[in-house]
């Protein structure tokens, strides 16, 4: 595998070839990956998770943030995670088009994590890749989760600052509550806030936060119009403020423990011989009383 | 721990004292639990999972099913899983009241699994308890998941037949799609089907199934009015037909593998010394470059 210093040199020059190759090697778990990861010396750059329902304008919002950061001389990495079916790549393709203005910029690295991943596999990949990005000179790291369902909540819960992007639409609040986004949100963005019902929607979010015992001094609600660049400065300030507060509160350590557990589970999963399990099951099921605990003990 | 034959004798007589005690012992992981579970000789009674949003009438529906089964001479066990916060017990208490007509019936055993459980803990408990129930003479086993969010989908995906209960209400279809219930449903029940918009709602479900490539010969949509006992016979027939088809298709084995993996993960999780992990983290974080992979290796 490539020396980290060589990858970092490439990143500093806007050449992401070695980085991209290394990411593929890590995703493919080539020999030596574990030792390579364990030898990294990451700088604790906070991970910014950006999530929300499809159509909320996440990519436009990220484009806006990236623009501000570039202007401030920062190097930015964006990982796009699509936990939904591999047969529905529309969202990712759309995002790529919306973010294309940055695809060739020397300060911006963009990569999609297409694989769905089993039982912690996706989270495990995210931890591996963000640790690599923290070790090769990036100043800002964004993980965007598109798609629907529980995976986005899982992934978001591994980010240091999770931004939930919503648009003023009836029913979205209820949706958000039920899908668990309320619990993972460190910041709410109400995008397309020039819509007529935006203020009512913002009031609803505040009301729901109150009902859930979420303090509005800790969790801010930021109105934006990403397509016009409105609210980007406010959002960046809110992200920075959250990360500062987070460090002071020590909640980073809780996050590290959560990540460590994900990694341990993923590691254990890789050790299971699934092929043998399937073969043994044929025999075990033929017995009159199949006992799953007796069966499972062979693979522990 | 108690001899399985003694528990089964109690169940046959409508005395669930030993069963209840054994469930508590298993939940508390008393010494010998693993060996006890591995020695069970379960009959492969299919697990019927019943899930859906709060207020859909799940408990009334289960009451109706239980009534039919009792009349047919069956012994029935119902596990109620509430994966939501332990501070919101309202749903469970409400269910208890609705199902109270069966609480003292000698053919019916009802138990709530109140614990939220961490990372597979809830599923692991469900597998343990349903295997015990399969070993002591029950003919029908129902797992009811109340509450919201992803946990109900996880639990439902471990049942042999998952029944998703909905009521004709605007927005519920979208909700169902997003929460992943569409993927786990083996049968849909449209309860309160005497509401005026019921047929439109049923059409929507069929349309969504078509869009998702779900065959309506495999996944039936059953209209019911549980409070009046309407549709119970249809539902029981559909459950039986699904379980027969399931056995023929061999999809039981896929389910067994999924359960085995859950058990292995839960077992590995119990071996992690979380206290030591927290202590070590204090020291590790003080270093200039905290590496989570290097840190995690100590606990693998």
Supply the key terms.
alpha/beta, Rossmann fold, 14 helices, 7 strands, 300 residues, 12% strand, 7-stranded parallel β-sheet, homodimer
End-to-end separation of chain A: 32 Å
How many individual β-strands of chain A? 7
Query: How many domains is the backbone of chain A divided into?
Result: 1
* Silhouette of chain A: globular
CATH-assigned homologous superfamily of chain A = P-loop containing nucleotide triphosphate hydrolases
CATH architecture of chain A: 3-Layer(aba) Sandwich
- In the CATH scheme, what's the topology name of chain A? Rossmann fold
Query: How would you classify the helix and strand content of chain A by structural class?
Result: alpha/beta
Structure description:
The structure is a homodimer of 300-residue chains. Chain A has a single domain, classed as 3-Layer(aba) Sandwich (Rossmann fold), CATH 3.40.50.300. The first copy, chain A, is an alpha/beta fold. Chain A has a seven-stranded parallel beta sheet with strand order 3-2-4-1-5-6-7, sandwiched between helices. Chain A contains 14 helices and seven strands. The longest helix of chain A has 21 residues. The interface between A and B is large, with 56 and 56 residues.
